[in-house]
Amino acid sequence: TGQKLGHRAFAHSGTGLTELVDWIRSTSGHEPGRIAVGIEVPHGPVVEHLMDAGLLVHAVNPKQLDRLRDRFTMAGAKDDRLDAFVLADSLRTDDKFYRLLEPMHPTIIELREWSRITEDLSTERNRLANRFRHQLWRYFPQFLDLSEDWARQWILDLWEVVPTPAKARGTRTVTIANLLKQSRVRKWTADSLLAHLRTVPIAVAPGVTEACIAHCRIIITRLRLVMEQLKTALKQLERLCSAVADLPVAPETMTDGRCDPDILRSLPGVGPIVLAALLSEGHDAIVRRDAPTLRALSGVVPVTRRSGKQCMVVMRQACPHRLRTAVYHWARVAVMRDPHCRTRYSDMRKRGHSHARALRSIGSRLIGVACVMLQTGELFDANRMPQPAIA
User: Fold this and answer.
1) Vertex 321 angle, CA 45 and 301, to 5°
2) Do residues 328 and 322 touch, judged by C-beta distance below 8 A?
3) What are 56's strand-pairing partners?
4) CB-CB contact of 343 with 388 (8 Å)
5) How far apart are CA 313 and CA 360, in angstroms?
6) Alpha-carbon distances of 302 from 112, 226, 272, 317, rounded to whole Å
7) What pLDDT score was predicted for residue 2?
8) Is-contact 322 115, C-beta < 8 A?
9) What CA–CA distance (Å, rounded) separates 226 from 131?
10) Whole-angstrom Cα distance, residue 223 to residue 151?
11) Where are the alpha helices (DSSP H) in 245-354?
12) Residue 26 and residue 340: Cα distance in Å, rounded?
């Protein structure tokens, strides 16, 4: 009836969450399967405890909750008690704004965590590589021309052999030749590499070289550890993506013996990192084959703001950044490998669109193709002509 039955605060602990469930059941007088709970954050221990107790947990976007709050107060007041009442009353009257949360399979939860770990490790690797580059720029800039990626294994091994310009003048050619052979580097020969490192060095103040070397040693130690952890994370992604293929599926989504990871992996530009992000961050939309929702979560569909004669189309900002990044790189690699995507990208650029805008268009098309493939169970066919080209 919209009347408040009570309010109470609970401690964030196992005992507190148990008391929360017991209080809700005793106050409402119903079984958990008939009690709906509204909440903002769709994950976390509170949500998991409520779902484990059998309550029907519904999540709402925080922006929508902010608009719903204006129904009850126009003064801009906000506190936990008011928010709880707004959530409960709006769930009673406007449940279409809420999304019913369903328990996620443990494999998907583990895959999502390893996907985020991989992203964090990649970010840390790039950060340490940039610090290593800065130290080289201070006293040994010849090193910067050897590669565009200063965290590559052979670059680190080479620096440990030749840490200074003075050391480069006394290093034997056979030592460098063996290192390049073991690392399978063909861009440089031992003679050309040493000749480049032995060019006239820059003059630095006394003590700068020693300080930079000490800093580089610490950076390289951390960098090697992060690179080993990144290799382990990538192996875990491969293992978990294969495990997702063995999960039970709903009868309405069953295909002819092909699982979702195999179908998505056949698309151009989908590697282990992008595949893991799609299966974990966009799990609900992938299971429902919901292309519009997946496009919105990926940020590839724009937002139109129209008022009278004014119309403005802007980029969508409110979306998970991990899924946005994954779809961006998916589209970027697809442009390099798929001729149809490359043609569409060129047409968008000729029409005056920016690089990022063209990639969002490619990403939107790829998401639509992926959802259709998931519905039909087909693998990607690079020789199949798109419908506009056939027309």
Assistant:
1) 120
2) no
3) 36
4) no
5) 14
6) 26, 37, 27, 9
7) 85
8) yes
9) 14
10) 7
11) 260-265, 272-281, 283-288, 291-298, 321-337, 339-350
12) 61
SS3 at position 98: coil
Alpha helix segments (H runs only) across the chain: 14-28, 45-52, 62-69, 80-93, 106-139, 153-161, 165-170, 173-183, 190-197, 208-244, 260-265, 272-281, 283-288, 291-298, 321-337, 339-350, 355-376, 387-390
Q: How far apart are CA 69 and CA 84, in angstroms?
A: 10
Tracing tokens 């004669």 back to the chain, one arrives at: 309
Strand partners, 314: 303
Q: Is the distance from CB of 366 to CB of 360 less than 8 angstroms?
A: no
Q: How confident is the model at residue 363 (pLDDT cuts 50, 70, 90)?
A: very high
- pLDDT surpasses 90 at 361: yes
Position 37, amino acid: V
Length of the chain: 391
User: What's the confidence (pLDDT) of residue 160?
Assistant: 94
Q: State pLDDT tens for residues 328-348.
A: 999 999 999 999 999 999 999
Q: Would you state the structure tokens that stand for residue 74, as one six-digit string?
A: 């126009």
Long-range contacts of 37-46 (CB under 8 A, 24+ apart): 38/87, 38/88, 38/90, 38/91, 38/98, 39/87, 40/65, 40/87, 42/99, 42/101, 45/12, 45/17, 46/12, 46/17
Q: What are phi and psi of 49, to 5 degrees?
A: -70, -40
**Sequence-separated contacts (24+) of 224-227 with Cβ below 8 Å:** 224/156, 226/121, 226/124, 226/125, 226/128, 227/125, 227/151, 227/153
- Phi and psi dihedrals of 303, rounded to 5? -115, 125
CB 282 within 8 A of CB 366: no
pLDDT at 252 > cutoff 60: no
What domains are there in the chain, each with its CATH number? 14-103 (no CATH), 108-237 (1.10.287), 249-390 (no CATH)
313 pLDDT band, cuts 50/70/90, is: confident
Once rounded to an integer, what is the mean pLDDT over residues 13-20? 93
Angle at 131 between CA 128 and CA 136, to 5 degrees: 130
Average pLDDT, the chain: 90
